[in-house]
Design brief:
Length: 157
């Protein structure tokens, strides 16, 4: 009898992310919330770096969140960084075709993180949703609070 090759449906996870930086560059923080939409269970993660940029922290928030997923998932990603979300959905295919260079032939900034994000994206089905920052979106506000606290911590505060 042949083995059943039908795959089980992927589980869904909701991810909310944000990054913060005191100065640009300066001390920075990232944060993410992972939520199981079936039961509402959530877990928060945050971290940071002493000398970084806001864009790097925005990227790290998504990377760190996706690294927490052990199995391929359906991911609903919500963030306020157009840089990250447009990079994921619009710009990255062209960058990859051009050897991680922009259309003006200049190297892509933060290529190390974009390459890592590309690897992680290939493992999951990701649907991105932009939300306006500092506009009352609960999870975005919470991620901003956590990321800002990480940046402050690295600033001696």
């Amino acid at each position: 009898m042949a083995a059943d090759t039908q795959q089980l449906p992927k589980q869904t996870v909701e991810i909310f992310t944000d990054g913060a930086c005191l100065g640009n560059p300066g001390p920075g923080g990232w944060a993410c919330i992972l939520r199981n939409p079936q039961n509402g269970a959530e877990i928060e993660y945050s971290g940071g770096e002493d000398h970084t940029t806001n864009n790097r922290m925005e990227l790290m928030a998504v990377i760190e969140a996706l690294q927490k997923l052990k199995d391929p998932m359906l991911v609903k990603l919500c963030g306020d960084s157009k840089y990250v979300l447009k990079g994921m959905t619009e710009w990255m295919p062209g960058w990859k075709k051009r050897g991680w260079r922009k259309s003006d032939k200049k190297p892509v900034l933060n290529a190390d993180l974009w390459k890592k994000l590309d690897e992680l994206m290939n493992m999951h089905d990701i649907n991105v949703q932009w939300t306006k920052g500092h506009a009352g979106h609960y999870e975005n506000e919470r991620c901003d609070e956590l990321a800002s606290a990480e940046a402050l911590l690295r600033n001696g505060g």
